[in-house]
Amino acid sequence: MEGRGLRAGFTADAPPLLHMSEPLRRTAFNRLFAVVYFSAILALLYRHVQNLFLHPTTSFLSFSITLFLFISDLVLAFMWASAQAFRMSPIRRKEFPQNLKQIIKDEDFVGLDVFICTADPYKEPPMNVVNTALSLMAYDYPTEKISIYVSDDGGSVLTLFAFMEAAKFARYWLPFCRQHNIMERSPHVYFESSSHHPSIPQFEKIK
């Protein structure tokens, strides 16, 4: 089904697909299980009603325990029922973000404001925050449509210095990502990964 979706996305009559979905095989099993489980819940609740109203006990303690069990089973039954909606028709979805630019122009992309919050440079190392900011700046998204803000509630000088150095590194890192279509846009992840390409001429300079 995925192959058909890809081919259909590039026909002359239909625009490229942005996503597709297919039902999972366990749908029938989920529905059968829900019917059996629901029947068991009804039988249990009917038993509670019998004990409470049709065959009431004379003991107040016994009646109270039965009532509390009935209420707890009602609550648990409601929690179970409210969680069954997404199990009745589960699907597997596949996205094709590479087709997005074939459908809309760069100027039609929505503007994005991304906020990065940090407070303690010891609990949140500046290197991690810097890697987050650099990976966001390297997104495959129109640069004039995305704005990144860093909020340092702790006012750390260390974090400020880290971002000053990151601004210098970004002059090399961002063009490098766009030129070579780097998917691992976090510098730390990219250089730690075994999938990078040292044969790229700028690799050693960037590293």
UniProtKB/TrEMBL annotation:
Keywords from the UniProt entry: Cell wall biogenesis/degradation, Glycosyltransferase, Membrane, Transferase, Transmembrane, Transmembrane helix
Residues passing through the membrane, by range: 28-48, 60-83
UniProt-annotated location(s): Endomembrane system
Single GO term (MF): cellulose synthase (UDP-forming) activity
Keyword Iron-sulfur: no
Residues that bind UDP-alpha-D-glucose: K123, E124, D153
GO cellular component, one term: endomembrane system
The keyword Chaperone appears for this protein: no
InterPro entries per record: Cellulose_synth
GO process terms (BP): cell wall organization; cellulose biosynthetic process
UniProt superkingdom: Eukaryota
Descriptive protein name: Cellulose synthase-like protein G3
Lineage, uppermost ranks: Eukaryota, Viridiplantae, Streptophyta, Embryophyta, Tracheophyta
